[in-house]
Amino acid sequence: MAKTPRTWTGARTPSGLKRVRSAERRHAVLGPRRSAAKTLVKTALTAATNPVEGVDAQAALIGAISALDRAAKAGAIHPNAAARRKSRLVRAVNAAGVGTAATSSHVAKTIGKAAAQKAAKARIAASKAGKAKGAQTAAGKARAALNKSSRAEAAAAQAAAAAKAEAAAAKAATTVKAPAKKTVNKSTTAKPVATAAAQPKATAEKKAPAKKAATKKAAAKA
Q1: What structural domains and CATH numbers belong to the chain?
Q2: Helix or strand or coil: residue 40?
Q3: In the Cβ-directed half-sphere of 158, how many Cα atoms lie within 13 Å?
Q4: CA distance 140 to 133
Q5: Which pLDDT tens digit goes with each residue over 128-164?
Q6: Is the pLDDT of residue 83 over 90?
Q7: Which of the two ends of the chain, N or C, has the fewest CB atoms closer than 10 A to its terminal CB?
Q8: Residue 12 — very low, low, confident or very high, per pLDDT cuts 50/70/90?
Q9: At a CB cut-off of 8 Å and minimum separation 6, what does 96 contact?
């Protein structure tokens, strides 16, 4: 027995029927996003061309741009189509003289400097916490605390060793070495005395032959 009647002109294969069902689901989800974006764009154009009391044209423009961005992100419309529609909408509003402040489709948030710094610090802390390995579990926290304590102990030991070495160097620099006593060698000192005593004797002995020779010469002349 056939699953579809003979007069059916649509899909018949299981894959084709599944594609029809998925398309219906996508249409049910994405259709309201497309229609909401179109409605907001129309409202923004109407508020710009025909201002009505109680309707802010600038707020309507921002809402329409946000709706187009959300629809493009969800896949309801193509991103290029969303960009084209935003550009045309902004130009139309600027031509009407209402949206002079919104010259581009990008709406920047105005926050204070302190709030911006606080948000940046929060983002940095969150990224560091996310990058930390095992910080989410109790065992990971225990390991992190142990590593922190061991690093602190190592740093303290290194600082103590450096202080000890510096104290030892200072002590060595302040201490003065005692002068060494000169040892007197008796044998070396006795030799010069002996030579000095013996030197006059040797000279006397040398002079004696000279005198004898002189007396001999004098006797020969006589």
Answers
A1: 14-96 (1.20.58.110), 111-173 (no CATH)
A2: helix
A3: 6
A4: 7
A5: 766 655 555 666 777 777 888 888 888 889 899 999 8
A6: yes
A7: N
A8: confident
A9: 48, 49
